[in-house]
Amino acid sequence: MTTIAFIGLGNMGNPMAANLVKAGHQVRGFDLVADNLTTAAANGVTISDSATAAVDGAEVVVTMLPAGKHVLAVYGEIVAAAGKGTLFIDSSTIDVDSARKAHAIASEAGMLSIDAPVSGGVGGAEAGTLTFMAGGSKEAFAKGEPILQPMAGKVVHCGDAGAGQAAKICNNMILGISMIGVGEAFVLAEKLGLSHQALFDVASTSSGQCWSLTTYCPVPGPVPTSPANRDYKPGFAAALMLKDLKLAQEAAQSTGAVTPLGAEAAQLYALFDAMGHGGTDFSGIVKFLRGDVA
Ligand code: NAD
């Protein structure tokens, strides 16, 4: 059993913390939102009065926060309360530069740290089947992997500090671009009088096959579990896809990488979001491509 401080008990953090409790760890939680604390307490998390109080005496600290500025603010607040050698795991999706700064704050204070963002959404967090993409030293990863396992389907050590975030934004740039590509193909098929099922049956077993088509098909019918069958209720909200595409563009600009399709995907999701559809599943972009949304 390990004593774990869990900071950020939102849509993802709460089910992740619950899986750590189920694995037999002692989990102390903190969040700014009272309702989230009530849910956490019902899941067996011991509620702390502050992030600092949660961290005091913990062997591992997990953060699951909205963005880089939140992670840096919380790290700045809590490092002094943690014992030397405490392992800091940040599972938020944040920009690579902030992730590296968070590692620096931890290491200057004598802590071990990994960035370990996730893929798999709220469903994966509840089922304990998230994919973790970790960045950090071999020593920090070796200590962190068993902690991540109860929340994970798969844990990949991607490299040094920031490598987990780099893998996450590269993966999600592929996803944003491929969802738009699949959506465009269905819209063109409709104009050509080709049924959704016929295109699916061909493309899902041909060279056009990809996750956006075969697992997350953006039109209702061919894949009954995809959000298109429940009026695009997320799933993975378009606003979160936009966040990740913007992170990819920031990284492209800071490194000089040429990503024209990533830039276009970010623009299309920004328009979709500005039209008030940020809370729609990201596969709902097909409605925008069809001209179905105002
Ligand atoms: P969320 O907004 O539901 O949860 C974030 C929580 O952090 C909130 O409850 C908020 O109150 C808390 N918080 C903010 N500042 C805090 C502070 N100073 N101290 C304590 N708590 C604080 O967001 P989420 O959907 O749980 O996502 C969390 C992270 O995971 C994000 O970086 C997101 O991009 C990433 N992510 C989300 C999904 C998803 O499907 N929701 C999937 C993969 C990755």
Automatic annotation (TrEMBL):
Protein name per UniProt: 3-hydroxyisobutyrate dehydrogenase
Catalytic activity: 3-hydroxy-2-methylpropanoate + NAD(+) = 2-methyl-3-oxopropanoate + NADH + H(+)
GO-annotated molecular function: 3-hydroxyisobutyrate dehydrogenase activity
Occurrences of domain 3-hydroxyisobutyrate dehydrogenase-like NAD-binding (ranges): 162-289
Presence of the UniProt keyword NAD in the record: yes
Pathway terms, separated by semicolons: Amino-acid degradation; L-valine degradation
Keyword terms: Branched-chain amino acid catabolism, NAD, Oxidoreductase
InterPro entries documented for this protein: 3-OH-isobutyrate_DH-rel_CS (IPR002204), 6-PGluconate_DH-like_C_sf (IPR008927), 6PGD_dom2 (IPR013328), 6PGDH_NADP-bd (IPR006115), HIBADH (IPR011548), HIBADH-like_NADP-bd (IPR029154), HIBADH-related (IPR015815), NAD(P)-bd_dom_sf (IPR036291)
Domain 6-phosphogluconate dehydrogenase NADP-binding: 3-159
Assigned protein family: Belongs to the HIBADH-related family.
Enzyme class: oxidoreductase
Enzyme Commission no: 1.1.1.31
Stored Gene3D superfamilies: N-(1-d-carboxylethyl)-l-norvaline Dehydrogenase, domain 2, NAD(P)-binding Rossmann-like Domain
